[in-house]
Amino acid sequence: MEKEPTQNRSWHIVDCKSAVLGRISTQIADLLRGKKKIGFRQNLDSGAYVVAINAASISVSGSKAKQMRYYKHTGYIGNLKTSTYSEVLESNPEKILLHAVKGMLTKNKIAKDQIKRLKIYRGSIHPHKNIKFKD
Predict the structure, then answer these.
(1) Residues with Cβ < 8 Å from 21, sequence gap 6 or more?
(2) DSSP reduced 3-state for 129
(3) Is 25 part of any domain?
(4) Angle formed by the axes of helices 109-116 and 21-33, to 10°?
(5) Greatest mean pLDDT range, 36-45, 56-65, 95-104
(6) Where is the signal peptide (predicted)?
(7) Which residues of 72-83 are buried (b: 16+ CB within 10 A; e: fewer)?
(8) CB–CB of 28/101 below 8 Å?
């Protein structure tokens, strides 16, 4: 198997303000995987760093805000916790975007490294001010 060459990964900033969840998470997943690059190969991790800002103002279409459910099991018998999209959006909006992007990545070892390069922030303030973003 060919070794991955050392590379300088680019940084992208994605503004989620008034964006639809599915469309913005597809763009983020493509950037994390590096699908738009010329030398894209599925077995090599050639993606970029992605900073997603304004995650609290992300939206969904239709009546999904009431119908979409997130499930979490505590490990005890009968303790399946459910919460709706609107409940999670109030408490932890970063979790919604992370869950959607994770579902769009491949289910293998590379996905763990790719998801570590995703930085999600609730508002427009983030600690990556000194980095040159590629748009």
Answers:
(1) 58, 59, 60, 96, 97, 100
(2) coil
(3) yes
(4) 110
(5) 95-104
(6) none
(7) eeeeeeeeeeeb
(8) yes
Range of the domain at 100: 11-59+92-120
Is there a domain that residue 111 lies in? Answer: yes
Residue 66 lies in a domain: no
Residue 102, domain CATH: 3.90.1180.10
Examine residue 45 and state whether it is found in any structural domain, yes or no: yes
Instruction: Give strand pairing partners of 108.
Output: none
Please check the confidence at residue 7 and state whether its pLDDT lies above 80: no
| pLDDT tens for each residue of 23-41 | 999 999 999 999 999 989 9
Residues 6+ apart with CB under 8 A from 49: 9, 10, 11, 12, 117, 118, 119
Number of domains present in the structure of the chain: 1
